[in-house]
Predict the structure of Mechanosensitive ion channel.
Amino acid sequence: MILHSASDITQTATDSLNSIMDASIGGFTFEKFISTAILIIVCLIVRRILIHLIGGFFKRLAIDRTLWNFLMSAIKGILLFTVVVIVAESLGIPSSSLIAIFSVFGLAISLAVQGFLSNLAGGLMILVSKPFSVGDFIDVASYTGTVTQTSLIYTHLLTSDHKVIYIPNSEISASKIINYTRQTERRIEIFVTASYDSPIADVKNAIQEVLDRLPDILKDPAPEVHVSAYQDSSIQYVVRGWAPTDSYWNAYYDLLEGIKDAFDRHDIEMNYPHLNVHMVKDTDIPVQAMKESSNFISAADNPKTILSKDS
């Protein structure tokens, strides 16, 4: 009797379990829900393992941290999408339909955030090509400053007067970039003028003394002083010297001040635009001729007061 009752209980439990397994909601049986849940758990575990392995691989490559974060986010999204497709297939949803829905959805989003995507693409180009790094002093998109941060959307620039400028990466990737700190040395180039009355050798020696005296001017490559042009009232000289990048501006300003002091010590005149007034006591030149002359100007219609212009 007891065995018979136990058999009945077992049979009842089996029938109940079978009825539960055969029960369906919206065409999906309980058995399918259980198998789908197990599939989701397995897929998520595999996804986590793959993310861990890929992350370790990227760390060994020693790539830029910002680029690393972006790649890991993209990989996580791709793996999650793969999990969704696999689960949808197990539930009987065609993957082609799912991909088509995501494609239309992605197209709509891309049109809505076109500017964002262009900045994102520009940020990726910058991170891959690395035309500059944090701490570099650059000139880009009509702005000059020190790079303080690079992200996928904006590059942060700190100007010399401590303004923080956020430049869209799309604008940077389409502009010319000048990196002043990529090299360890920079060349200084200054143009100065001296009177024709000052011998060329004296002018060059005076400038050379300054170049030799300044500690920030490198001896190799050797600095240079040359005549670069003969102007209307002066001779133009070009001064070139090399300085460490970190000391460039100190050397530049010291050289400017040193040249002026050296010219004063050696009585070398720096020419500048001025007017010479010539007083003519007796002249037979008609007033009209003096007015039409390109070299003389009549002052107050007085033919005896002549102004000549020197530049």
Observations:
- Residues 293-309 have pLDDT under 50 and may be disordered.
- The chain has nine helices and 13 strands.
- The radius of gyration is 40 Å.
- The first helix runs from residue 2 to 22.
